[in-house]
Each structure stands twice: as C-alpha cells, then as structure tokens.
Request: fold
Amino acid sequence: MRGAPAVAAPTAARKSDREGIVAVLQDQPTLDRVQAIIRELQLDDELNLEPTLDSALRRVREGGNQRVLMLDVSESTAPIAELSAARSVGGSDLKILALGTVNDVGLFRDLLAAGASDYLVKPVSREALAIGLEKRGGSTGGGPGAGLGQVIAFIGSRGGVGVTTTAVSFAWLLSDRHKENTVLLDLDLHFGTVALNLDSDPGSGLCEALEQPARIDALFVDRATVKVSDTLRILASEAAVAEALMIDAGAIDVLLYELRRKFGWVIIDLPRWVTPTQRVVLGAASKVVILCERSLAGLRDTIRLQTLMREHAPQTQVMLIDAGASGERATVGKSEFEKAVGKSLDATLSHDAKSTGSATNAGQPLPVAAPRSPVVREIEQLITTLAGAGETPKRKLFGFGRW
Ligand SMILES: Nc1ncnc2c1ncn2[C@@H]1O[C@H](COP(=O)(O)OP(=O)(O)OP(=O)(O)O)[C@@H](O)[C@H]1O
Ligand SMILES: [Mg+2]
Reply:
C-alpha cells in the first residue's frame, strides 16, 4: 500500500521461536530509536523490517509469533483503511502502533477506532516508544475495527455479469428482511446503475465529497446519502460522461470510515477498472464477492482478481460466484473453470432474465419485483453465508456459522 521505505532492506524470513516485532518504517532516525529501545528494554523480540504494509501483513498472516506491528502512516493516503486491514489480519491480540507526523486528536481518535492500539507522533519520544513496545499490558483496543460497520464489496470478473443486480438485492434483503442498518455505495461514478435500479435520485453529494474530502463528516453522510427506506440509504452519482474526476484515495478512506461509523453494513458496487479508490475499498472490505463469468476472458480475469486480492487485500475473504447473468456467454464447463481458478465456486446464481429484466424495468430490487425468483433465494443464502457469520463488529448478527 505504500512505496519502499528509506530504511534497510527487510531481513530474510527465517524461523524463530522468539516473539516478533514487524515494522514498516519510513525513516532512519525512527528505526534507530526503535532498535535502541529494544536493546534498552532487553526485549528478546526479533525485529523484522518490511518494505510495505502488504508484505508486513503477509508475514503476520504466515504465522511466526508476531507481537507488535509498527506502521508509519505519515505518507499514507489511506491510513484508516490500512489500519483496518492490519487489525483484520492481526486479530485482537496484535499490538498495532501507528506512527505519523500529524499531531491531531481527531486523527488519533479515528486511527484508534479503525484498529490501532496507539498512535505515536514523530519524532517519537523514548518514553512513548518504550510504553508502546514493552511486553506488559497485553494487547489493545477491542476487536477488528471495534464499533465500525462491515464492508462487503461486489465486483465482476467481466462487465454485465449482474454485480449491480446482486448488490442491490443483497442490500435490500439485508435492510428490509433483516432490519440491518445498511448503506449501498455505487463507486461507478459515471455509469453506475444502483440509483436507477432503485428508481431513486443519485444525488450529487458523492462526487462533491470525493473531490473535497475535508467536507466529509457525520453530518455530510446524513445529507448526502439518499433514503430508500428506514433501514437502507444509497450513495451514488451520475457524473457527466465528459467529466474527469480527480478522486483522492484519502477521500474514500475518510468516507468509508464515516459510513462505517453510521451503518452496520456498507455494501459496495465496485467497478472493475483499477482506480486509487479500489485499493482503499479492498483494504477496508472484510469480504469481497467476485461474480464470475465462465468464459475464457472471465476465467482470465477471475484469476487476475484473485491475485489482486491475495496481494493487496489479504485480510478479505473472497467468495467466487457463478454469475447467472452470463447466460450463453458461460462457455467454460464448471469443473474446468474450478480447476483453473484453483478452488470450487462458492455459490451459483441462476439465470433468470425474465425476473431480472422486469425488476430493472420497474426500477425495483429483484426481491420486490420477483420475490419467488430462485435468484432471490440464492441471494438470501448469500446473506446467510456472508453476513450471518456473526462477525459484525457492532453486534452479533443472526448467529449462523462461519463460512
Ligand atoms: N441472474 C440473472 N439472470 C439473467 N439476467 C440477469 C441476472 N442478473 C442480472 N441480469 C441482467 O443482466 C444485465 C446486467 O446486470 P447488472 O447491471 O446487474 O450487471 P453489472 O455486472 O452490474 O453490469 P456493469 O458491468 O454494466 O456494471 C441486466 O440486464 C440484468 O437484468
Ligand atoms: Mg453495474
């Protein structure tokens, strides 16, 4: 998630029984100080420097005995999403020390809410580092992103595979049948169809906010989201086709944070093309649903999306779905497809052009237009699998098993 640090290259991975400190640091003075404190406190921890957060999280995930993750966010465009991702990977026992140059109590509070155990302002004082690195006191604050809603992103391996239909139906069922406080965010700022599918006005707040992140706060979220029902709001846009938007990754980071503070569930219709926002969303998402088209191009792009998730969003659970919308484009056999992607498809959505077509025409979510369609049953099953894992940080949901 960031460029190479100014400090020494990472130490070679080697097995060790010692507890470890994984550090992504940006400058030599901080590194010197960290090493001095480790010596001074006579910590027997192994210090592992990593060039990026991604590689640090891989190390944490691969086990070993990591006790502390130090993450310098001073040059990060998306510190909240980064800490969120780190907390999801590290679980509640990992101590996560964020370092930065901005001395601001609001930022401090936000970083803690996103998953940091502490935030140290550079140049880091000896005392602060000693307290941060000492072994007493155990871990941190709360579970993964304690108090924040959960992000589920939907993305297609090709265009027109039913991402929007599925995300809209999913959000609608979650909010209407399960009474969960949900927001549906359409990040296809020019051509998105979430608002159209719900016969709703996209509003103009999303584009404005993403271009001026300083405006994003709780009040903004209240004003900019468009109400669909008491439990469902959407945030979308219909930017002019000729309008080039300069979206700052930090803006989406702040926006997601504010949405997660207010809503238990943030469902995202994520475009396939790579933008700076996509990486931030993937960093914040605990689950990503890939709708797969079983064509040759769909296979190639499913594999490429799997690689993207592995490398840039290792904390997310990825679900592969056989997209019903592909219809006759699904020319690759299921078992052949599964063999090539290296895992079984997690679910299948039926092909039902009649129901989805009438829902689209009526500007209604599929569960309203065609409640008895098999696709609705299958999406309801998806909710059980994805949202029923009882993992919502705000509170336990319907108590179904993990997937
Ligand atoms: N399960 C399904 N069976 C048949 N047709 C479907 C199914 N789901 C969606 N469709 C139809 O496929 C078309 C594309 O659906 P949708 O807009 O949801 O796809 P998308 O992946 O979001 O497309 P885009 O890449 O343009 O954003 C629509 O006409 C929709 O009605
Ligand atoms: Mg779409």
In short: The two ends are 28 Å apart (CA to CA). The first helix runs from residue 28 to 40. The chain has two domains: 20-133, 150-386. Residues 219 and 258 are 10 Å apart (CA to CA).
